[in-house]
Amino acid sequence: MLKKKDKYVTAVVGATGAVGGEMISILQERNFPIDKLRLFASERSEGKKLEFRDDEIKVEVLREDVFKGIDIALFSAGAQRSKDFAPFAAKDGCVVIDNSSAWRMDPAIPLVVPEVNPGDLKKHTGIIANPNCSTIQMVVALKPIHDRAKIKRIVVSTYQAVSGTGAKAMDELLEQTKSLLSFQEVKCNVYPHQIAFNCLPQIDVFLDNGYTKEEMKMLNETRKIMGDNSIQVTATTVRVPVFRGHSECVNIEIEKKLTANEVRAILSEAPGVIVFDAPEKGIYPLPLDCAGKDAVYVGRIREDESIPSGLNMWIVSDNLRKGAALNAVQIAEKLIEFAQ
Amino acid sequence: MLKKKDKYVTAVVGATGAVGGEMISILQERNFPIDKLRLFASERSEGKKLEFRDDEIKVEVLREDVFKGIDIALFSAGAQRSKDFAPFAAKDGCVVIDNSSAWRMDPAIPLVVPEVNPGDLKKHTGIIANPNCSTIQMVVALKPIHDRAKIKRIVVSTYQAVSGTGAKAMDELLEQTKSLLSFQEVKCNVYPHQIAFNCLPQIDVFLDNGYTKEEMKMLNETRKIMGDNSIQVTATTVRVPVFRGHSECVNIEIEKKLTANEVRAILSEAPGVIVFDAPEKGIYPLPLDCAGKDAVYVGRIREDESIPSGLNMWIVSDNLRKGAALNAVQIAEKLIEFAQ
C-alpha cells in the first residue's frame, strides 16, 4: 500500500515515447501531487531534457537501482523492460503502474480501470497493470450496461489510430502521406504494409487460433477487469490512417432488454463517459474530435433487432489519454485516495 | 428478354461520374460485344468527349426519347434520374441495369449479383437493379457458406472508401489531406465532417430507428439477393480515409459448425472469390491491393468461439468495380448468355 503523503516522488519510465510524453503532460494538467519528478528512458535518450511545470528535467538512464526513494513509477517502456525492471522497483517500495502487456494477465496483479474496478487496487503488491487501450474505452462504456442488463456477448471491430503503435508510427503515416502526394516511393518501416489511405487488419502478432494478440486481449482483459468470466467477446482489430483516437463498433447481446433511450440514460450518468448521440444533427463521436480529450465518447446507440436483446454503439476515445497515460495517472490518483 | 444478337447497342447513363467511367473501362477490358456505345450525362457535360477503344465518343444529354434502338443501358446517374428515365428506356425495349437505389427493393425488379442469384434475371421486365456496393461484396463471400451451413445472423462493420460517394469525395479527401499537410484550413463540402485522418460513422442519411439507409440496405438487400428472409443482419457502416476499396469485418452465426479450414476450402472454389488468408506471412486483404481488381478477397477467417457455431472474416473488394460497375457489366453479360 502507498503511504499517505502530501506529495509523492514520481517517475515516468519511457519518458521520451508517445505515451510517456502524454503522461508528463497529464501529471502537469491535473496538478498531480508531485514532490519530485524523475524521468527515465533508454541510453539513446540520455541527457535529453524535457519540460515539466517551469523546470527542465534531465532524462536518466533506467537501471535496476534507481527506484529507491521513488513512491510511484508510471512505466510505458515496452513489455520486456517492464518485466526486467518493475520487480526491482516494487522491491524498493515503489508502486509501479505499468502500461505494457507484461503483467496484465498475471493473476496476482490487478488490472484496473478506475471507473470500473477501483477496488482491485487494494490487492496490489507493488505492480498494477494498465489495460490495453482498446479494452479500456470499451469497458468504461460497457460496465454500466453490464451492471444493469448483464452482457452475454460482445462483437467488436476496431478502427485504431497509429499513435497506438507509438511516435514512429505517427511519423510513418505522415511521411507516407507526403510521399504519395508528391508521387514518391512509399516506405514501410513500422507496419508491414502501407498505412496511408489503407486499412490493416492486423494489430500485434498472430496467434495459433488466427486471432491477433490485440484481439485476444479484448477478450481476456475485459473478463478480468469486469470480474466476469462468463462474458463472451470476439474481436477484430484494424489499424486505420488516423493519428489519434481509437473508434470501436460494438455489438452486444444482453440478458435484459434495454431500449436505446435507456442506454443513453444509463451512460449519461456513467463516470468517464460522454454520450454524444444525436445523429440526425450530425452528432456522433469522431476520433478527430476526441483527440486530446479525457472522456470515452459513445454514440450511434441503436437497438439491434437481429436478436431479442441487442445493442449497437460506436465508442471513441483518445488512445494515448484514456487508453494509456490518463488511465495510468487516474490509477495513481486512486491509489493516493486509498493511501493510509 | 434480351434478343440474341452478335453485338448490342449499349449505353452508359451517368458516363462522366466515377462509376460511369469505370463502366466504360470495364466494357472495353472485357471486350463486351458492343455494336455502338452511347454515353449520356446531364447538360453540364454536354459536348464532352470520352475515349472508348480507338474512338472518341461525344457525351449526349439524357432525354426521355433517346433510348430507341439501344439494347442495354447501364445507369449510374443517381436514384432520381433513374426513376425519371428508366421507365422510358424499358418502354422502348432497352434493358436497364441500374446502379442506384431507386428500384432495388421493388418486388417486381430483380436485384442481382451474378455469382449469387443469376436466375432472378429471368424474371425481369426491362429494369434490373444492381445492389449497393457494401452488400455485393458481402453476399459474394457469404452465399457459398450459406448454402453449406445456413447463416442465421450477420454482424457487419464496414470500412468504406470515399469513392463510394463519387469523384467529388475523392477530391475532398485529397484536398483536405493537402491542406492539413500545409497547415491550411480544411474545407468540408461533400461530407459533414473532415474525412482526412478521421472515421465517419455515417453513410447516407439517418432513419427513425437510428440506422442509416446504408445500414438498412445491408439487411434488406442481403435478404432479397440471398432469397432468404430469415437471415438476420445488423450493420454499422463507416467511411474511412481510403480512396478505393471497401473493407468489411463480418461476424456470422451459422446453423452447422464449419472450421476455418472448411470455410477456406468452400470459398476457394466459390465464383468471384479469392481467399487471401495466410496472416502468419502478413497475407490478408487490403483495400489498397484490391483497388482495380475484380474479385472479392476474403481473409482473417477464424472460428468465433463466443458462440457454438460462429465465424469472423475480413472481406475486401473494389467498390467501383465489383461493388458497382463490374457487377453491372456482369449482369449484362449474364443477360446475353440467357438471350434467345
Describe this structure in words.
Two copies of one chain form a homodimer. Chain A is of the alpha/beta class and 340 residues long. Chain A has two domains: 8-131 and 324-338, 3-Layer(aba) Sandwich (Rossmann fold); 135-319, 2-Layer Sandwich (Dihydrodipicolinate Reductase, domain 2). In chain A, 30% of the residues lie in helices and 23% in strands. Chain A is built from eight helices and 13 strands. Chain A has helices at residues 18-29, 79-91, 133-149, 167-181, 213-226, 260-268, 287-290, 321-338; strands spanning 8-13, 34-41, 49-52, 55-61, 72-75, 95-98, 127-129, 151-159, 232-236, 246-254, 273-275, 296-304, 310-317. Chain A has a seven-stranded mixed sheet, with helices on both faces. In chain A, strands 9-8-10-13-12-11 form a six-stranded mixed sheet. In chain A, a hairpin with a 2-residue loop joins strand 3 and strand 4 (55-61). In chain A, helix 1 packs across helix 8 (321-338), helix 3 packs across helix 5 (213-226) and helix 3 (133-149) packs across helix 8. The mean pLDDT of chain A is 97. Chains A and B meet through strand 8, helix 4, strand 9, strand 10 and strand 12 of A and strand 8, helix 4, strand 9, strand 10 and strand 12 of B. Chains A, B: GO terms for molecular function: aspartate-semialdehyde dehydrogenase activity. Chains A, B: Belongs to the aspartate-semialdehyde dehydrogenase family.
